[in-house]
Structure formats: structure tokens, C-alpha cells
Design a protein that fits this description.
binds flavin-adenine dinucleotide; FAD/NAD(P)-binding domain; 10 helices; FAD; oxidoreductase; 2 domains; alpha/beta; five-stranded parallel sheet
């Protein structure tokens, strides 16, 4: 009987998982279906560029899957019935049965974190977010507050400030800027924000997003014409609702081979999974982890079907690449556990390096 592998999500993790599985399991008794909400690959690492009005290269999934034998279903997954081993989708054929499921639905902006964020803030975490923000920014003037100074917030603030010099851009964070960076990296980042005219406000807790700007936990306010919410990613509730074992954030909990702790026929990869790095710390939500997890999970699924025991996944980090507009950047080199070393690459060299890595990622996904 044909064994049906269904992969949910064609992002960095899902696409590399599906293609990896098709390479490793080229057999007549295996069928692979990839389900994704849109028919093209979304380069999430470029969404701040899209939000700033830069056209992104079209990457149809049909082209990326050519010759693989993988069946593409463009539809939104609405539920997973774990008992019936069926995925429900919002268009025909409405239900897809699976023998093995790879769950790689990624993440979205955590706009549920404070009241008003979902209603009043824009985001840059998904393709639809970025398109909405781009359309909103087309006559950008006045003031913009970017709430959340993780890597996404920094990239969005600098990109938008560079594109719209008439805009007053503020970057607000509850902690300190660049907490995971070296001293040199932090210094460079502060100077770069200055050069871009982005005003930084640290140690500032936001309690609400209102129509007129941010309401702060200390009772203060930061008025703004527009707010971009970049304070963290959250995962969809689908995994929790399906009854898969998840952690407090709804991330699927897995063994060291990325197999669900509750459902052995389910594997997970990318932002959706609670995988852990060498020191036991949660893995960073990034394509730097999503891509190797996807490739790894293909091997893990193949091993499970052929009765072999795969080697446990070992996540290793090398750098954090932060773009600061189109001609500037900061590459923070790291130890394998993601902690920063002193070495950094900055300016145009870093921007070129990040561009090369980003293009290289798509090339790897094409192969
Ligand atoms: C602006 C921005 C900049 C970033 N920069 C970097 C960077 O420089 N370096 C880095 O390493 N990381 C970066 N990241 C993070 C990185 O993009 C994510 O961690 C990565 O995309 C996660 O990969 P994934 O495959 O798990 O999920 P995704 O890439 O999000 O893919 C998930 C896929 O699932 C689909 N999907 C979701 N829900 C459904 C559903 N219900 N039904 C059907 N399909 C669905 C989506 O359409 C998508 O195609 C950035 C993120 C953003 C937003």
C-alpha cells in the first residue's frame, strides 16, 4: 500500500523537508503531498523589504517542485484530526489523509501579546502583513513606531527609515537593544540606528496599542500615526487543537529526531517546533534553524519508514545576520550555541554577505 507523507507549510522548513523526503524515498510506494496557503515560496527574511515597497522575486512553488513528483495543494489548513489522521483544508478536496505528517506551518506576529495590537498595529511577519504595511506606507509621513527591537524590529525600522526619509521612526523595546550581541555589535547597531535617524527607546513596556499610538505600562504614551508590532512571533493554535503535545507557547514538543512526543506518526520542523540547542536553550526561530531542521526531518522520516534509528539533531549556529537598510548591515558571528563572539562584519560588506546568504538559501531550496 502507498505510504502518504503530507507536509504542511512550504516555508524554509516544509519545502526542504518535502524535497529531502522525495530525494531519499524515491519509491513507488511513497507519495508526498505539500500543502501551502499560497502558490509561491515566501522569502520571509525579505518581508521588511516588501513592506518598504521593494518588489520581491516571484518564486512559484510549482517551479521549485518541478521534477520531484511532490503533489502541491494550495489551500489553507483549517484543522488536523489526529485520530482520523486527516488534514482539513479550506478548498477541494477539503480533507487529505496522511500516514506520516510533517508539521511546518511557521509562525506569525504575536499581536495577541497586548490589547489593541491586532486591531491597531501593522506587522511584517507574514506575506499578507507585509503587503498590507506596504500599501499603508505608500504615502508615508508623520510618525511610525516599531514596537519590539528583536532582529525583525531592527530590520523593519531601518528599512522603512531608509525608504521614507520624511518619516519619523522610533524603535521601542522592553529590554536593551541587541542583548544577544557582542559589545562591538551593540555599539555598531546603536550608531547605525542613529545614522538612519531611528530614535531608540529602551526599557519601555507597552501595555496597549491604541489608535493614536502606544500606551505604556508606566502610564505614559508614545503617540504615532502608525505602529508596527514586531515584539515576538507566535504559532497557530492548530497543533494544540489537534491534540499534539505542545509547550506553553503552542510549539510542538519533539524527541531529538523531531518526532512528536505524543504522536509518533507526526514530525515537526521550523518555527512550529520546540527544538533545543546544544545548551538546552530553545532554538532561535530563524531560517538558519528551519532549513537544517527541514532537511533533517526528511532523513528522520525516511529512517522511521525503513526501520533505522536516525542520529539526533544537533543544531549549530554560526552567525546572526541583521540588515540595516539596503547598504548597511551587521553580521554577528556566534559560537555553535548562538552566543556571540567578539568578531563582527559591518557596513556594506555585511549587507553583501547577507544578500549572498539569502540568495544561496533560495538556490539550495531550488536544488
Ligand atoms: C521580516 C523578517 C525578517 C527575518 N529575517 C531573518 C533572517 O535574517 N535570518 C533568519 O534566519 N531568520 C529571519 N527571519 C525568521 C524566519 O523568516 C523564520 O524563522 C522562518 O521563515 C521560519 O521558517 P518556517 O519554514 O518554520 O516557517 P515559514 O517560513 O513561515 O513557512 C511557513 C509556511 O506555512 C504556510 N502556512 C502557515 N499557516 C498555514 C495554514 N494554516 N495553511 C496552509 N499553509 C500555511 C505559510 O504560508 C508559509 O509558506 C525573519 C522573519 C521576518 C518576518
Amino acid at each position: 500500500m502507498t505510504h502518504h507523507i503530507v507536509v504542511l507549510g512550504a516555508g524554509y522548513a516544509g519545502l526542504s523537508a518535502a524535497k529531502g523526503a522525495s530525494r531519499k524515498l524515491r519509491r513507488g510506494d511513497i507519495r508526498i503531498t505539500l500543502v501551502n496557503a499560497v502558490g509561491h515560496f515566501v522569502e520571509r527574511v525579505r518581508l521588511h523589504q516588501l513592506a518598504a515597497g521593494q518588489p520581491l522575486k516571484e518564486l512559484p512553488l510549482s517551479g521549485l517542485l518541478a521534477g520531484t513528483g511532490i503533489e502541491l495543494v494550495v489551500a489553507r489548513v483549517t484543522a488536523v484530526d489526529a485520530a482520523a489522521r486527516t488534514v482539513q483544508i479550506d478548498s477541494a478536496p477539503y480533507a487529505i489523509a496522511y500516514d506520516t505528517l510533517v508539521y511546518a506551518l511557521g509562525s506569525a506576529a504575536d499581536t495577541a501579546a497586548v490589547p489593541g495590537a491586532a486591531a491597531h498595529a501593522s506587522a511584517v511577519a507574514t506575506y499578507q502583513d507585509a503587503v498590507r504595511l506596504r500599501d499603508r506606507m505608500s504615502d508615508a509621513r508623520g510618525s511610525l513606531v516599531v514596537a519590539g527591537a528583536g532582529l525583525t524590529g531592527i530590520e523593519a525600522a531601518t528599512e522603512l527609515a531608509e525608504t521614507y526619509p520624511a518619516l519619523t521612526v522610533r524603535l521601542v523595546t522592553g529590554g536593551e537593544l541587541g542583548a544577544g550581541l557582542s559589545q562591538r555589535g551593540r555599539r555598531y547597531l546603536r550608531a547605525a540606528l542613529d545614522r538612519h535617524g531611528v530614535t531608540l527607546r529602551e526599557h519601555t513596556r507597552v501595555s496597549e496599542v491604541a489608535a493614536h499610538g502606544l500606551v505604556l505600562a508606566d502610564g505614559g504614551e508614545i503617540p504615532a500615526d502608525a505602529v508596527v508590532w514586531t515584539a515576538g512571533f507566535r504559532v497557530p493554535d492548530l497543533a494544540r487543537e489537534a491534540g499534539f503535545a505542545v509547550d506553553a507557547r503552542g510549539l510542538i514538543t519533539v524527541d531529538p529526531t523531531l518526532r512528536s512526543l505524543s504522536h509518533p506518526e507526526v514530525f515537526a520542523a521550523g518555527d512550529a517546533v520546540a527544538a533545543y540547542g546544544p545548551d538546552g536553550a530553545a532554538s532561535r526561530m530563524s531560517c538558519q534553524t528551519g532549513l537544517p531542521m527541514g532537511a533533517y526531518v526528511a532523513g528522520s522520516v525516511a529512517a522511521s519508514l525503513t526501520g533505522r534509528a536516525p542520529k539526533p539533531l544537533r543544531l549549530r549556529y554560526v552567525w546572526q545576520n541583521i540588515s540595516l537598510g539596503r547598504h548597511d548591515g551587521l553580521t554577528q558571528f556566534t559560537r555553535s550555541d548562538d552566543s556571540p563572539v567578539a568578531a563582527v562584519l559591518t557596513g556594506r560588506a555585511s549587507a553583501r554577505f547577507k544578500e549572498a546568504v539569502t540568495r544561496g538559501t533560495v538556490l539550495a531550496l531550488r536544488r
